[in-house]
Amino acid sequence: MSALSLLARLGLTASATKARQPSQFFMLALSALMLVFAAQPLLLYLAPVVDLSEAMKDSPTLTTYRQPEDGKPFFAERMSRAPGLYGGLHAIPAIIWSIGIPMQHSARLRSSYRTLHRWVGRATLLSAVILNITGLLFIPLNLSYSIKTFELHEWSGLKWPSFNAAVVLVGVAWPATTLMAWKTARAKQWDQHRRWATVHTAFGYVITLQRIGLLLVGFVGTIASLSPALSQALHIPHHSVGAEAFEKERAAFALGTWLMIPWTGVWLFHLFPASHTHKTA
Q1: pLDDT in tens, 213-252
Q2: pTM metric for this prediction
Q3: What whole-number distance in Å separates Cα of residue 28 and Cα of residue 38?
Q4: Does residue 163 sit within a domain?
Q5: 57: containing domain
Q6: Domain count for the chain
Q7: To 10 degrees, what angle do helices 190-204 and 243-271 make?
């Protein structure tokens, strides 16, 4: 099921049934993870304390994501090439969104601090718009860590789409949830607003869930580095810097995303249970 068809179905469901409240613990955990990933390139750019090329070039393949020439982490290379776009207009909005979303789902904040809830909501939705635009701009500007959008990765006979394809998929669907969350708030349709805010939240956490996928892939890379036989069986190159390792790490980066998109769908169907059951005669 595509993101758009899922969104259409959820739009109907959101009108017909009461959404479950997303777990605050789950959202806080995801937001904390994204804060680490979003703050890392900013901090290392503003206050570099180590030579990342030297620090990471000997890490096992799949445990980080590097440039083929020097082993420099791709996000550090992107920050040096486009600090305003990559850091100021992408990493910072990601931080704002990650802080704002758990706050917006707090019933206590909604009821006791309504003005704060409204202003945090505006900042959060604005950050989502900026995130969406800059994320899509990374593709033509060659700032994303991906092969060409419509190419496929191939590894041991398996194939999957590029990271860019996932960005386009989410980047087309997520703005609709942002718009509906804003429109229903403006119309004071509070039940509808909470439902659309829940859909918006789930779609927005796709990239955070991808980071979990990357951690799982990194675990596999670490284990494989300790076993030459396993590394050979999984076709993971021993050398962590170079064209072959670069292609494997880009493939893993895309795989981590595509593995987590179905989990977003599962989460959404959990949050929006069936509104009725069919009766048999």
Answers
A1: 999 999 999 999 888 899 989 999 877 778 888 999 999 9
A2: 0.88
A3: 15
A4: yes
A5: 3-62+73-271
A6: 1
A7: 160
